[in-house]
Amino acid sequence: MERLQKIIALSGYCSRRKAEELISKGKVKVNGNIITEMGYKTNFSDYIEVEGHPIETVEDKVYYLLNKPRGIVTTASDEKGRKTVVDLIKTDKRIYPVGRLDYDTTGLIILTNDGELTNYLTHPKNNIEKVYVAKIKGLITKDEVRKLCNGVFINGKKTSKAKAKILKIDKKTNSSIVELIIHEGKNHQVKNMFKAIGYDVLKLKRESIAFLTLDGVPSGEYRELSIKEVKKLYGEKNNQD
Ligand code: URA
Questions:
Q1: Tens of pLDDT, residues 86-106
Q2: Which CATH number fits domain 63-124+211-240: 3.40.50.1010, 3.30.70.60, 1.25.40.80, 3.30.70.580?
Q3: Residues assigned a catalytic role
């Protein structure tokens, strides 16, 4: 929530002082009602008219890095009323997640109200690197890992080149831990890549996006990105393939 005069000034319609003058003269409407109260707080989604002209409201941009726990959905709102990643962040801004992580996937996800950064990070041509660590059922071989790197077929389409390495082979529990670095972000991409070579993913965590990691951010917690980090993200274009 912001003071009405600030929102009008941010829209570029006039200065904050002029906005105060117009409010006191009864020239400002919020959702159809004339507002003359000076401290009136309003929201960026409210419909504001000044002297009969609708104004475009612009919200300050915010950026959060969340360490998503299991059992949380990655949408702005869930029709089944389940908790969403947006519910974990205290803000009055209309933020949404950049890309998605499955309900049972944990790890790094960015939330913002900046559509430009969202497009940049999700557009395949920018090749933004994402690092996942997957625990899979069975004992994977080096040859199979090589297949993941060269590309596997998901719904008849070959995945682009990836990097992968085996972190652990556990014969006792008949499971393996593999680090997989991909640029693409199709739905269930990692699970489907392992499925394509005959393995089920038991646990999945996203460790990083570009240079951003989960360092200092425990599960369920978040931090704001600095402007420096946001600018650096735009420089992250990875032209390797
Ligand atoms: N790939 C998946 O299969 N699931 C995720 O949550 C993210 C990437």
A1: 999 999 888 999 999 999 999
A2: 3.30.70.580
A3: 102
CB of 70 within 6 A of ligand 1: the answer is no
- Looking at the CA of residue 104, tell me the nearest atom of ligand 1: 6
pTM here? 0.80
Fold classified for 2-54:
3.10.290
Residue 201 CA to ligand 1 center (angstroms) comes to: 10
Most ligand 1 atoms within 8 A of CB, residue of 70, 74, 85, 100 to mutate = 100
Nearest CA to ligand 1 atom 5: 101
207: CA distance to ligand 1 center in Å?
12
Q: Hey, do 2-54 and 63-124+211-240 end up sharing a CATH topology, with the first three levels equal?
A: no
Contact yes or no for 240/234 (Cβ under 8 A): no
Q: How many other C-beta atoms can be found within 10 angstroms of the C-beta atom of residue 87? A: 13
The domain defined by 129-209 carries CATH number 3.30.2350.10:
no
Angle made by CA atoms 183, 188, 193, in degrees to the nearest 5: 70
Class of residue 33 by CB neighbours under 10 A (exposed 0-12, middle 13-18, buried 19+): exposed
Please give the distance, rounded to the nearest whole angstrom, from the Cα atom of residue 136 to the centre of ligand 1: 13
Beta carbon of 188 within 6 Å of any ligand 1 atom:
yes
Q: What does the pLDDT look like over 24-83, one tens digit per residue?
A: 999 999 999 999 999 899 987 789 999 999 988 777 789 999 999 999 999 877 788 889
